[in-house]
Amino acid sequence: MSALSFPEHPETVLLPVEHAAPRARRRWYRQPALMTGLVVMGIIVFLAVAAPLITSYNPNAQNLSQTLQGPSAQHLLGTDQLGRDVWTRLLYGLRLDLSIACLAVLFPFTLGVILGCVAGYFGGWTDTVIMRVVDVVFAFPFYVLIIALVFVLGPGIRSIVVAITLLGWVSYARIIRGEILVAKRQDYVTAARSGGLTSPRIMGRHVLPNVISQAIIYSMSDIVQDMLAIVTLSYFGLGVPPPTADLGSMISDGQNFISTHWQLTTFPGLAVVAVGLGLSLIGDGLADLIRPGQT
Amino acid sequence: MTAAPAPAPAETIAPGEPLLSARGVSVRFPVGSQLAARIRHEENVLKAVDGVDLEIGRGEALALVGESGSGKSTLALTLAGLQPPSSGEIRYGSRKLPARRSRADQRRIQMVFQDPYSSLNPRLTVGGILRELLRVHHVVPRNEVESYSKTLLNLVGLGEEAMAAYPRQFSGGQRQRVAIARALALRPDVLIADEPVSALDVSVQATILNLLRDLRGELGLSLLLISHNLAVVRHLCSRVAVMYLGRIVEIAPTEQLFSSPQHPYTRSLLAAIPKLTEGMGDDAPALRGDPPSPLAIPSGCRFRTRCPIAQERCEREDPVLETGAPDHQVACHFAFADGGAAREHEQEDPS
Amino acid sequence: MTESGSTGSTGPAGPDQAGATGPVLEVRDLHVQITSRSGVVRAVDGVSLEVPRGEAMGLVGESGSGKSMTLRACLGVLPAEGKVTSGSILLDGVDLVPMGQRDLNRIRGPKISMIFQEPMSALNPVVRVGSQIAEGPQVHLGYSRAKAKERAIDLMRRVGIPDPERRFRAYPHEFSGGMRQRVMIAIALSCDPEIILCDEPTTALDVTIQDQILRLLARLCRDSGASLVFVTHDLPVVAQICQNVAVMYGGQIIESGDVRDVLLDPRHPYTLGLVRSAPDFEYVRESLVPIPGSPPSLVSPPAGCRFHPRCEFVEEDCKVTPTPLRPLPGGRATACLHWERCLEAVAADKASQ
Fold it and tell me: Are A177 and A120 in contact (CB under 8 A)?
């Protein structure tokens, strides 16, 4: 047998992509947590998106002759103290809160990932400064700070998003920094440096794609947290201004009638719980996929 | 098949002038709190490389041999421009290379790493890895990138199916081939291979070693091989430098080093290699004790704590790397003490 | 190991049925299967071997050959997805396969122990080294804490750890790689076992440290009379420390015999291929000859001889005829149907040296 060198027609025996794919992608549909979460969120999102099609009422239309009605054929969940259809308001509120939460997550995600990347990759003073800021922000209780910020900035959606961004980026920064500290020691990063690639390029094209999954998983639970923050702020009257339908203000308003018309407070609350559950399940499922746990 | 790529002839190096050289290179890493160290009048410094002079000629295959803590990997990274030296200089020909190398200079020295599983970005296809390098450095015109990538893969014995595949679809040996193709993509003058086959199965090692040898011949590459396996070294390299605790203690042509080693550490190293043909016998181990920590390098000769022939002088004086025979340098007060072997070679030398 | 509870009739500390002259460990037609997503992996597919008392036997092969799984089966530490599907493992005449974990725990330590490749992961990083060494004697031999400590310090001295009284209280991370491996050896020896299984114990060590550890192991086993099963992929290492060797490929033993006979005068094309492809320090070959192809699938191995797709001497019958180990004169055995072809190849190699 002669030594193998410069074969004319080299035979490359490769594992087919399907077999060699990370176990994750092949079996995502078999993960119970993930599937349940997707189903729950699927229903919720569908309801929220199709709200105008499902309900015929205007969420803000008052009908003072029909206040505080119980559930009936015309009003699935009854009406509130101003005669507005509760089911309609629920769906529209869900729609609003969910979209604000998703939007609100994008900014901290981006800011946190970038800063975490820079801190982790370059180290030294950059790392120290950024991480100390992170530490300071973490030291404050989230809700106290966010309420204070919104109070200062004035109530409204824009303030909510700004406040969430200013506070929310720190978790992403920490997560990404940790992952990058590990990833940058891998040989393929050294190889990229050896190949004369610039640091931003290595950070963005080589290291980040390999670590971003952790941030994405975290963002699932972050959406939940942001939604709760929005609901809480609205509950305190610092969020979405009335009369716009919103879960937080619905809960707050409905409180006054809790002994007689418990559905006014309870159903919006349940909606919040459902969203939280759905997103958490998705987050859990994703985490299991990316880091396969014990069955 | 397009022709094999030749190294980019960028500068003329005078014949006889080394392609790559290191003079007085040291690499020190601060460890722990420097302030505390200063208060205690200590040096919390890890001297990974502690004063190394080395030259690699064009087309030469030099081996850097040593055990853990010898500094060979750090020296390799420094030569490749990936780790700035704390002192000393690295030259390309006669030109000094700055700590931050230009892109053109960075290309000249490429590395292949030990672990085939972490040296390729799992998110990029093989084609993607090569394409990026070729484009960023403008190695070939844009429309030739694809075909040149295929040429590179053929050169290392992989077919074009490899282009669209991800690293996880390859075996360890195949990944090393991809790594070699990647290193060659930039047409380097020097290829530094850091333990290229240690993580591979025995029967696969042969293909990679043969590949390296053949590529050297075809492309006229200089090779710096880092290995702890002297059998591999003997097979591939014409000259060997032995490192211990950050210094080169002996450097000589391969056969001369193995037939008449002059430094006690080299002798111990050779004696420790397990042989197929003989059993261990009841002899004492080739070398006693553990290597000292690079944080606390012994005074005088750093090998004296384990050296079988250490004497009082060794504690006071740090031996310098000196030429005791043609092309054979040793850092030991008692090198060539037994005359004999060294003088034989002296007589053969026509000069 | 099968999880059926032990009824107690085959006690692990039972009488020495094989007598003081029989082999200390005897594996008979062992089959180990691992369930994986791609199917059932036949990791060990009909392995039989005998380890005589006081001797060191080497188990050589590349990754996927089944050598590590064989060792683990002997100790009863197969991964969760693996199990012994048939065959027997006789330690001093007592079959370990049907034993439950409780009975196995009683023999692990006093009768059989293991040394692993990576001491840093095999040692508990948060427990002091001395306690880890003393644990065995306390649990298995019923030593008091003081007596166990004494034994641990004595063991540390015997394995060459300097200043053992002080280092008794040290943690694993305070030791160098070679020293940690010595700690592992001390743990393995702590209950005076009859056989020690070694899974690539020196692969991660420097050459000079490997030399120290190999000599230490050989001396300790000689002094205590313990047998060794030494798994490695490094041929010269096996030649140093073992008297006999078995070469594994694709979950089976394909050649066995005296270590120098097998490695210098192989009677199986795979062994020949291994020897030819590894750079040897003593003899610089013109060109290394790699073994073409890749290791066989253990889920659906090739029919007939498992090595036939890669073999240079392959004939038609190799592709269909099963190839069990067959004895050759001189205490050797080979699974190759045409082993004589190796003789010619070896002779040709020697002539060109």
Answer: yes
Centroid of chain to Cα A87? 25
State the DSSP H helix or E strand holding residue B234, giving kind and residue range, or none if neither: helix B230-236
Look at residue A39 and tell me if it is in a domain: no
C174 touches chain B (CB under 8 A): no
| C94 to chain A, closest Cα gap in Å | 34
Q: Which domains does chain C have, with CATH numbers?
A: 53-78+95-103+197-353 (3.40.50.300), 119-192 (no CATH)
Q: What's at B10, amino acid-wise?
A: A
Residue B106 to residue A280: CA distance in whole angstroms: 47
Q: Could you say which of C179, C241, C290 has the minimum Cβ distance to residue B204? A: C290
Of B231, B331, B236, B310, nearest to B272 by C-alpha is B231
Position A87 in a domain = no
Q: Tokens 């409204």 correspond to what residue?
A: A156
Considering only CB atoms, C211 lies closest to which of B229, B230, B286, namely B286
Express each pLDDT in B182-193 by its tens digit.
Answer: 999 999 999 999
Helix (H) or strand (E) holding B169: none
Q: Is residue A18 situated within a structural domain?
A: no
pLDDT, tens digit, 9 for 90 and up, residues B57-101: 988 999 999 988 899 999 999 999 999 999 999 999 888 998 888
What pLDDT digit, counting tens, does each position of B319-330 carry? 999 898 888 999
pLDDT value at residue B181: 94
pTM above 0.95, yes or no: no
The secondary structure element, H or E, covering residue C323 is: none
ipTM of the complex: 0.84
User: Could you tell me which of A118, A105, A103, A97 has the C-alpha nearest to residue A218?
Assistant: A105
**DSSP state, residue C88:** E
Distances from the Cα of A7 to the Cα of A10, A11, A259, B346, C89, angstroms? 5, 9, 85, 44, 46
Number of neighbours of residue C35 by Cβ within 10 angstroms: 12
The H or E element containing residue A289 is helix A263-290
H-helix or E-strand containing C221?
helix C207-224
Could you give the number of structural domains in chain A?
Answer: 1
Average confidence (pLDDT) per 10 residues, chain C, 353 residues: 36 44 91 88 93 93 90 90 92 90 87 88 90 92 92 93 92 90 93 93 89 92 92 91 94 94 93 88 78 86 91 90 90 92 85 74
Angle of CA points C272, C274, C277, to nearest 5°: 105
Would strands C195-199 and C227-232 be described as parallel, antiparallel, or unpaired? parallel
For B240, half-sphere exposure in the C-beta direction (CA atoms, 13 angstrom radius) is 28
- The closest alpha carbon to B248, from B193, B192, B303, belongs to B303
Average pLDDT of chain A is 81
Query: What average pLDDT score do residues B134-145 get?
Result: 90
pLDDT tens, position by position, C286-304: 778 888 888 888 888 898 9
Question: For chain C, which chains pass the contact test of at least 3 CB pairs under 8 Å?
Answer: A, B
Classify B200 as helix, strand or coil. coil
Cβ of B214 under 8 Å from any chain A Cβ? Answer: yes
DSSP C264-316: HS-SSHHHHHHHHHS--SSS--SS--PPPS-PPPSSSPPSSSTTGGG-TT--G
* B129: nearest Cα among B183, B80, B83: B183
Query: How far is the CA of A84 from the CAs of A48, A56, A60, A173, A248, in angstroms?
Result: 18, 12, 6, 43, 16
Residue A176 belongs to a domain: yes
Q: Which domain holds residue A268?
A: 98-295
CA distances B294 to A29, B44, B46, B320, B338, Å, are 53, 10, 6, 19, 31
Record: contact A23-C37, CB cut-off 8 A: yes
- Domain with A282 in it: what CATH number? 1.10.3720.10
Contact B118 A187 (CB under 8 A): yes
